[in-house]
Design brief:
This protein has 11 helices and 16 strands. It is an alpha+beta fold and 352 residues long. A 9-stranded mixed β-sheet has the order 6-5-11-12-13-10-14-9-8. It has a 3-stranded antiparallel β-sheet with strand order 3-4-7, with no helix packed on it. A two-stranded antiparallel ribbon has the order 1-2. Helix 6 crosses helix 7. This is Retrotransposon gag domain-containing protein. Pfam families: Asp_protease_2 (PF13650), Retrotrans_gag (PF03732). InterPro entries: Peptidase_aspartic_dom_sf (IPR021109), Retrotrans_gag_dom (IPR005162), RTL1-rel (IPR032567).
């Protein structure tokens, strides 16, 4: 014996001598055992898994070994109840016959939750969408056919009320496994339960600023008075509107852009624009109306942004605004400069 136990036993020998074994066991339990008011069965009933399965098993066994009157079936029920879902349902469906079998199943199912899911590969070059290049009004580069990568069809998005589909940021297998292990939603930082709905998914609409009068003599102020409707901000895409995802290059950076026929202007994510160090100008303030009633001011525009789509170059102006899910939103301001176009939304192809 060492530490406090050694000092206690030395005092016991000095006072009463070496005690008989049964008396020694009783004295050890009185000194180092749990308090008399401790209830192992009550603690087992209230025990819930809050960390790893292995730590939960150690806590459960330390309490179960102190109550010899519990049957094997009762121990299995108490252990399974404290696992919490989804492990609780997984283990209960297997109907383990012993506590050791229940522990083994819980560890195996937890290991399965940590495995990454196999993600489908991106479309290869043969399935990429190509555009012919006879747009003289907007193209300033070579005339070879640019290759645009599409494939974000509306059917691949989770439908939301009102026919709105959410274009969420793609998670890699490691991130998905971490969120499953922590019982978190894939699209927000809240706990996932049955019937969960992400609070941050909303539609943004841009309306002209009503509080500030427009300057009649400045053409830019007159442009700001036009109503703008966005359906792609914060990664949300509506199935009732026509959109297509493409890849564009700005400088040496490859960006994800959304062709959106319901947006009258072009928009760029604020962080992306600052990272690229694009030249900006201040124009008449516009008010972005969020679906929950909030408003966000938008007054910065990045001019002469040079886009490379395939082998074709375009020069556009983009308003700066936080965008979740895409780096760019190219609206009618971009599509109108292409001239006559043939857009097949089913096949996700665009010819101009």
């Amino acid at each position: 014996m060492t530490g406090p136990a050694q000092m206690w036993y030395l005092r016991l020998e000095l006072n009463t001598g070496a005690p008989p074994w049964r008396s020694f066991v009783r004295l050890v339990q009185q000194r180092f055992g749990p308090p008399m008011t401790d209830s192992p069965l009550g603690a087992l009933k209230l025990l819930q898994r809050t960390t790893t399965v292995d730590e939960y098993c150690e806590q459960f066994m330390s309490l179960a070994c102190r109550d010899a009157e519990l049957s094997e079936t009762q121990q299995i029920h108490l252990f399974t109840t404290g696992l919490r879902n989804p492990l609780q349902i997984d283990v209960a469906l297997r109907r383990p016959a012993t506590l050791n079998e229940a522990i083994s199943l819980a560890r195996a199912y937890k290991q399965r939750l940590l495995l990454p899911e196999i993600q489908p590969p991106w479309p290869n070059q043969s399935s990429a969408y190509r555009l012919p290049t006879n747009a003289a009004s907007a193209a300033t580069g070579a005339s070879s056919a640019p290759a645009l990568v599409g494939g974000d069809s509306a059917s691949s998005k989770a439908a939301l009320p009102g026919g709105i589909a959410a274009g969420r940021r793609r998670l890699n297998p490691t991130e998905m496994a971490q969120r499953r292990a922590a019982d978190l939603c894939y699209n927000c930082d809240e706990k996932f339960v049955y019937g969960h709905k992400c609070k941050k998914l909303f539609i943004l609409e841009v309306a002209p600023e009503e509080d500030e009068p427009a300057e009649e003599q400045e053409p830019e102020a007159q442009l700001e008075d036009a109503a703008i409707s966005l359906h792609a901000l914060t990664g949300i895409r509506a199935t009732t509107y026509h959109t297509m995802k493409i890849w564009v290059e700005v400088g040496s950076k490859r960006l994800t852009a959304l062709l959106d026929s319901s947006s009258t202007h072009n928009f760029i994510d604020l962080d992306v624009a600052e990272e690229l160090h694009l030249p900006s100008k201040q124009r008449a303030t516009m008010r972005v109306t969020v679906g929950n009633g909030d408003h966000v001011a938008c007054s910065t525009v990045y001019t002469d942004v040079r886009l490379l789509v395939g082998c074709t170059r375009f020069v556009v102006d983009c308003y700066a605004m936080p965008i979740d899910g895409y780096d760019l939103v190219l609206g009618v301001g971009f599509l109108g400069a292409l001239g006559p176009i043939l857009w097949d939304f089913g096949e996700q192809t665009l010819c101009f």
